[in-house]
Amino acid sequence: MFLRLATEKRLPLLSPFAAGIFTRGFSSIDRINTNLRPFPDYSPKKPGVKDVDLVRDLTTALKQRRSEPARRVLSPFGQRFRSDHLLWAFPHLRSDLPLVLSLIHWCRSRRHPIPAEALAIAAHLSVDSKHLQAARQFLREGLSHPRFVEQVIYTYKYWCSNPSVFDLLFRASVDAGRLAEARSLFFHLLTYGVIISTDSCNALLSRIPLHELLTVFTEFPESGFRWNVVSYNILIHRLCQIGKLEEARGFLRKMEDKDCVLPDVITYSTLIDGCCKSGELQEALELFSEMSIKGLKPNSFTYTSLITLSCGNNNVVEAERLFMEMLSYGVAPDAVVYTSLINGFSKKGNLFAMSRLFDEMKSSGHLPDAVTYTVLICGLCGSGKMLEANKMFVEMISKGLSPDEVTYSALIAGYCREGRMGDAFRLHNEMLHKGLLPNVVTYTTLCDGLCKQGQVEAGNELLHEMCRKGLVLNVVTFNSLINGLCKAGNIDQAVKTMIDMEAAGLCPDTYTYTTLMDAYCKSGDMDQARLLLKEMLDKGLQPNVVTFNVLMNGFCVLGMLEDGKTLLQWMLDKNIRPNATTYNTLMKQYSIDKNMKATSEIYKGMLALGIIPDENTYNILITGHCKSRNMKEACYYYNEMVSKGFNLRKSSYNALIKLLFRKKKLQEASRLFEEMRAMKLVADREIYSIFIDANYNEKNIKTILELCDEVVENCYVEEK
Questions:
Q1: Paired residues of 246 in beta bridges
Q2: Hey, what long-range contacts does 46-54 have (CB within 8 A, 24 or more apart)?
Q3: At a CB cut-off of 8 Å and minimum separation 6, what does 136 contact?
Q4: What is the DSSP annotation of 216-253?
Q5: pLDDT digits (tens, 9 = 90+) for 437-450
Q6: Which of 175, 209, 543, 667 registers the highest number of CB atoms within 10 A of its CB?
């Protein structure tokens, strides 16, 4: 709002802020004050005698018959009425805005043009009567007239003297998209001592391009104007939108240190969201901590940004911690938060957490949308739960939600993984029927599924269909076909497909070469596998640990253990870090050869590099030591394995139980046998014989019959 300063010189109107710093004697305002121009005196065109009579009769009729429609009251004056009469009528109706509005409405109905001066006066009268909506309408209409701003200024002193009319005029210019004119108006009004309100200037900030926004942000305060926290929030938001986070953080510091404007929860939430969208979780958490220190309570938007990024980074532990903190502060999570968390647990394959959050979401009154259902379906498909995924898909459609390409592609991928190509193509056809276009990922998934089923020709035909539909084949598509050909044993055709791939302008990648090398290794052709590795290196492609594991497996299967050890040393010399699978492959082959000394040496080398043994590592060690009758070592690795939460495989159970029995550890052997049965793992027939004999000696007829049933059900069925 604005103030009237009653001084000896009758200064024009100033905003409270401008008035305050004027009285404090700030030099910038003093300098402006010396050049302030007075508002002009209003001197309208004088009416003739006949015009005076007409206006008097017209306005008298309006006043006396105000309850009647203006159309009926003013009908006798229609033939003689001109636009000038409207201006001359205003002084008679000055204190009666409803009659002014009626008269203007009647003029419009008779298609009389409304002069710019009349619109300016009508706006003043509306402001004076606190009818701001009418004032905004007149000002917006007036802006279509040339020099309308000067008409508002010209009529101001006589008709209104309420400076909020200029605030409304400024907003009208902004709303009409006349942004350059609004900026000019700001400085023009300064010459009359009027400063536009911060709220109206904020409306300008939110509309102009960023480079202009930064200029305005600097220019306006030079005239004694001050930005508020909303102004800074607009600027910070715009900077964050284009990733200029450093500049945004700079303005956060400036608003406090230089302008004494305190940031609010929106300021910090905007910056946190910007950091999250740029993947800067640590910076976002630091701002979050700073925000809490200042006593600002995070809102739903703040938590949503942090939770979404944490889930995107597969850090669901941090996401859930933030979620629980959010609930403890009484901040209600929205559908986006629940969907983000479900997506995070979906990537981890945690179906229980997904289901729990989905139920919580619905019980909290948030309706799952298409994105939520798609996330759930993707998670279920990724975990192989196709029955549940299909139920969720049916539920989604029953709720009136439309699946998109992502939903269908997830289901198609799930069916392809299970080899249910009929269901996959049924959904593909359903997509087409609904007008959804399968993308290259969908077709690649179908092609890969066909190839894994041995239907390589059908996969190849699908690639041609993709080309006919204008889809550009990518490396993944060709890799799927090459993989299928290799699994079908057609290595020559796979190599030819790689040549076709290069002819199409696509470069084979590490996966392409690794797939072919794996096929050659499994066929026993290590020379060709080596040649592919050399070709790969010559092309500047970096082999990954999977590539070397493929070669390692090839060497070990063929009994070329020294070559395998040489490959491992070469990897270490080249700073290529092996993983547990690399070591497991070598250990397994030495273990099969009952060379547990070499197996142990490899295991120690693995630990020395800080590579963590996995479940397979322990099973190899336990089985190997059992077959070598190393009771102490087998039990040591078994205890260590259990302490780390790993499980024995069937072969490891069989080997350990046999060793325990041979070493007369009947109680331990019996405990492991019962544990194995509880896990639904089938023991060897030899082990069943051992325990049937032991129970026979104890005359446990019931247990003997149970074991006999299991032998018949499991062992003989397996043999068949």
A1: none
A2: 47/84, 47/85, 47/88, 51/84, 51/85, 51/88, 52/88, 54/80, 54/81, 54/85
A3: 168, 171, 172
A4: HHHHGGGGT----HHHHHHHHHHHHHTT-HHHHHHHHH
A5: 888 888 888 888 88
A6: 543
